[in-house]
Model the fold of this input.
Amino acid sequence: MTRLIPKSVYVECAACGHRMNYNRPLAACERCGSDWLEGRYDLDRLRGGQFETLVAGRPFDMWRYWELLPVRDPANVVSLGEGGTPLVRAENLGLMLSRPHLFIKDERQGPTGSFKDRQASLAISAMKEAGITECVLASTGNVAISYSAYCARAGIKLWAFLTSLVPADKMHEVALYGTEVVKITGTYDQCKAIAAQFAKQKGLFLDRGIRSIAAKESMKTMAFEAAEQLRQLYDQGELDGADRLGTTRWCVPDWYIQAVSGGLGPLGAARGFAQLLELGLIDRMPKIACIQAEGCAPMVAAFDAGQVTATPVTNPRTHIHTLATGDPGKAYTLLREYILKYGGAMEAVSDEESFRAMHVLAKMDGISVEPAAGVAFAGLFKLVRSGLIQHDEVVMVNCSGHTFPVEKELLGEEWVRSLTVSQPGPVPGEPLEVGVAAVPTDSRPEEGIVAAIERLDTRVHSIVIIDDTPEAARLIRRIIQARGDYQIYEANDGRSGLGLIREHLPDLVVLDLMMPEMDGFAVLDGLKSEERTRGIPVIVVTAKELTVQERQKLTGRVQSLWQKGTFMDEDLVGDIEKSLKP
Done:
């Protein structure tokens, strides 16, 4: 690491304002007993571009921001390469939602596959610096995996209390690191209470999650990274609207969106942006959207009711168990204050909407995410549909983790096609039998294999897509391919498209209207003028704002009309399936 500035780290009680030196993890204020403490630093020494200059020459990881993290000696840092995750533009999803500045902070790239690696690295480093050799935590899965990996590296014994709803594969991984796993049949809040009782009885250090200094401080590094990454995108010309940058060096998104259980991620990000604002590196704060699963949404219920504190949910009803924290405590109050001051939203989504969002993200942009991240994207869809997120706003979604394992509720039964070979490998001189269909006795074995393979492709409908914008055609093709077995033909102009229709006589045409030379209206005229093609159903997908006369011209001639950027994939596929019914 390049030159480090000696730092002053102290703790301030959020309740009474009392300040204490930060020499080891603290459980409560020594004056009033409050357990909500905040880390504080000497920011004056880092103003005037000093902080930006310091970090510029360092590796792009979490510890790049050393001066604003509560570990004093670099020798105590426990790292596996956390942080420095990419900010990925969601091209197809952004096109579908008509939100071109949609970015994903891809926390799947952490050492154990989730954003909790940031928390584990800083928390275990602080424990190492304090001489702690054994600790206890409660978890719904990801935290236990991350802490287990970092504790193994630091030589700290870990007791992980997990609810019985945590998938067995996750429990196995926790145990693999040498962690003592204790499975609790009960809610996560009950699990936390038992873990705290165990730590007290055994005299062991209890990790307090969101109430610990290290947890909150670690999450602000996502804000630091995003602010640097967004500025780089502006500088490279990949983001327009440079007039919005002002005189600051780093940038913020208009929206930060995350699924929340206890609220650690958004609170940490808010803290990070606030510190950058104090340092003069940004000139405003982003809006924050906190998304919860409907079956356990105490924050959303309280926010909608105008309550200052949340009423705990004692019996969570969601399959997304990592978000089943029934009592968010002070975190809700702080997030509510932030949203009322700077803007944002709290929204609840169903498990079904979340699993659907996982499908959409994977099939549109090739990003497979955990159900909790699916909640965040389902919330994004709701906020876009409501018009709360504007077309030109820059949106950042925290992709909190990878889908490990794929939840059983996600795929259903018919997710794979089987082709069975009756013996482990080919034996020279003997036929190879294939289990998809019987092989005729008078045919060669190779012919049986070819026939079986051909039967794997069951496409029975054909569709012609006509759109002069390659990105839009690609999006429509991908939506259709991801939801059904269709033979798809594409044309990038009206004349070629009409030729494809005449050649293949498809079951459906998906047509753009705004094209040079022969536009969509002319293609429709051509279709309706010929006996062979006039009965082919047409769905119009266009960016054009239609006049009353143009809408009248389409009436009775097309199955449905969609404005680009206003529909979701299931909307379009639903119309396609209805159009193809005999």
Notes: The mean pLDDT is 86.
